[in-house]
Amino acid sequence: MPAGTGQHLTPSQRLDWLRLIRSENVGPVTFRQLLNRFGSAQAALEALPSLVRNAGLGTRITPRGEAEDEMEATEQRGARFVGSGEPDYPPLLRYISAPPPLVVVAGGDGLDWSHTVGVVGARNASAAGQKMTRMLATDLGESGYTVVSGLARGIDAAAHRASLATGTVAVLAGGLDHIYPAENIPLAEEIVARGGALITEMPLNWEPRARDFPRRNRLISGLSLGIVVIEAAKRSGSLITARLALEQNREVFAVPGSPLDPRAEGANHLIQQGARLATSAADIIETLAEADPARRQLLEPDWEPEFDGGLDAIDAAPPSQDDRGRLIEALSVTPVPVDALIAGTGLSASAVQTLLFELDLTGRLEWSSGQLVALRG
Amino acid sequence: MPAGTGQHLTPSQRLDWLRLIRSENVGPVTFRQLLNRFGSAQAALEALPSLVRNAGLGTRITPRGEAEDEMEATEQRGARFVGSGEPDYPPLLRYISAPPPLVVVAGGDGLDWSHTVGVVGARNASAAGQKMTRMLATDLGESGYTVVSGLARGIDAAAHRASLATGTVAVLAGGLDHIYPAENIPLAEEIVARGGALITEMPLNWEPRARDFPRRNRLISGLSLGIVVIEAAKRSGSLITARLALEQNREVFAVPGSPLDPRAEGANHLIQQGARLATSAADIIETLAEADPARRQLLEPDWEPEFDGGLDAIDAAPPSQDDRGRLIEALSVTPVPVDALIAGTGLSASAVQTLLFELDLTGRLEWSSGQLVALRG
Question: Under 8 Å CB-to-CB from A290, ≥6 apart: which residues?
Fold first, then answer.
């Protein structure tokens, strides 16, 4: 699905999407599978109670009123929900594995979401690192690229500040009402005021926990054609972003430094692992300009939701308790393809799908890349 | 020809080799072709006068007495001449294109010439660059590698000093009596005193000119499994050494630095062009240990001199003035393979070879990689 195309959700569909994605144990992968299976979020919400009951465990389904409240509060905050099939969904984000079905976006109406570079790095950045960041972000912005970062202290904040005039996107680990760190709330406000955007997949009042940051990092890289790492320590969030970027088939650049400077360790290591050495915005732009058309040909959007029904499977006979036992026996902590489960158990594809949904909704399943499934360890 | 094998020259052969390589317009490529054609340096020296006469120009052939004087003076200086087919010729140097037929070596009797790393860089090195050089050279030396460099100020001198105890080779652009820069004469003496070596292809009293340094650089890389570049400016001798190393199929490493530091520009650029980023001796050793067996299988020595005659071509009829005109017409400033010249002129291979020798000796030919030939522009 190219940028700017797609189909708008109706207000009622959007509310159903929000109820479904906010329900317990429904992540992007399960959401997608439920939608593909039942044809719409509304049909999935109707089917969920019996799926949950069959699994013998209580999975909380978000009540309609709760979703309505979140929707209203978010809109009052000046932000909007955008679904992954809608024309204004960030186009590059569609190509990652398990894109968030809904993102909350504040600001950014005129932004170019297709020519984007993530600029990330250390919170305890040196003066030289910050200077380098300002140079890169300014030049990238003036060359027409939108700068994406994580609103952290240090490199992130320097990248946003240097690209306020040309357009920048801050990706949040928590909700819009819990911007972290608090010292960067004024910066977040200035980003929106000057045409940039804040974006998150979390509810308004979600306070970010440690595990939300790597999750957020997949959006920084997922929103970007490539990312640039400046002054990253060897075990740092920036290196996680770099790894995610590679998994998402995005370019990874790193700014080198002297081996005598410990703050250069992560970036130098990335270059040794194959990241491109960047000394200027020109290095980055040249690569992105060359890489772009090829990538666009190679990548397929990970998921295009079907809006037009497809409810075949609903009428199939529900799997028996015996079927359930067979499937659980076939699963282990080692991820296997769903096809292998179907072949291994002799169950129908429809029965395996239904049983996996049940397990998924009870929080016992772990999906990798949306293709492999394992029991949680 | 593996390291340590080969055949010693007799004193009389060595003197003929020296006369031939010191004769006007006889470089390593012509030397090799003359030896292959006439079977020995002695036979080539006998044939030269008529070749030169036929070409209608005077090419000075080094008189026997002059070569004897150089030989004697060099030996009195404590140095020796080593021919490219002899067992003590530096083994890695055999694999470069056009290895020097004779090198002058002072010291270095117990040195390991097979496990060698070239360490090169800026003359105006920073304190950090010199510290980095000391760390690398010390660690490389303690890991059993001989450190090769060019005895220049800055990085070169730091590399030699840090590896005095473990063995180091200084490659000179001039003769042993014209060590440049003069401030490093004590360092050169200490290198030899502590078991290291000085090596050059130039006569004792040769004062190095600007063009001798790139020529010397091909020996630094040619003596080394790989080279490390530290703090090189963008247009510098170190980058020439790096290019030559790549042409010689050697590994190239570069120590990165901040893009804000102009002294890092050359090394960062090399990494962008494909050189390996090195932050420690371990990075270098790991690559050389992996690369080594593969390279040794891939490379063939560029030339193994034939000591046992092969004088077939000498008796062939000499080419006519008409043949000479045809060949010159077929040549241009664009390099062509010798085979193409033979096919294009309809002359015999023997006639083409003889005419090329004549032209070569008059300084009108330019050889590329020993395979392609062109008229000098």
Answer: none
Instruction: Report the b/e string of A22-53 with b at 16+ CB within 10 A.
Output: bbebbebbbbbbbbbbbbbbbbbbebbeebbe
pLDDT at res. A309: 34
How would you label B212-229 residue by residue, b for 16+ Cβ within 10 Å and e otherwise?
bbebbbbbbbbbbbbbbb
Residue pLDDT, tens place only, A116-148: 999 999 999 999 999 999 999 999 999 999 999
Average pLDDT of the residues of chain A: 87
Contact list in A for residue B259 (CB cut-off 8 A) is: 132, 255-256, 278-280
- Asked whether the beta carbons of residue B283 and residue A264 sit closer than 8 angstroms, the reply is no
Higher pLDDT pick, A337 / A198 = A198
C-alpha distances out from residue A339 to A264, A333, A346, A350, B85, Å: 45, 17, 11, 12, 65
Interval B176-195: pLDDT, tens: 999 999 999 999 999 999 99
B273: amino acid identity, one letter? Q
Alpha-carbon distance of A249 to A94, in angstroms, equals: 13
- Residues of chain B that touch chain A, judged by Cβ-Cβ distance less than 8 Å: 128, 131-132, 255-261, 264-265, 268-269, 271-272, 276-280, 283
Residues 6+ positions from A313 with CB-CB distance below 8 Å: A37, A38, A350, A353, A354
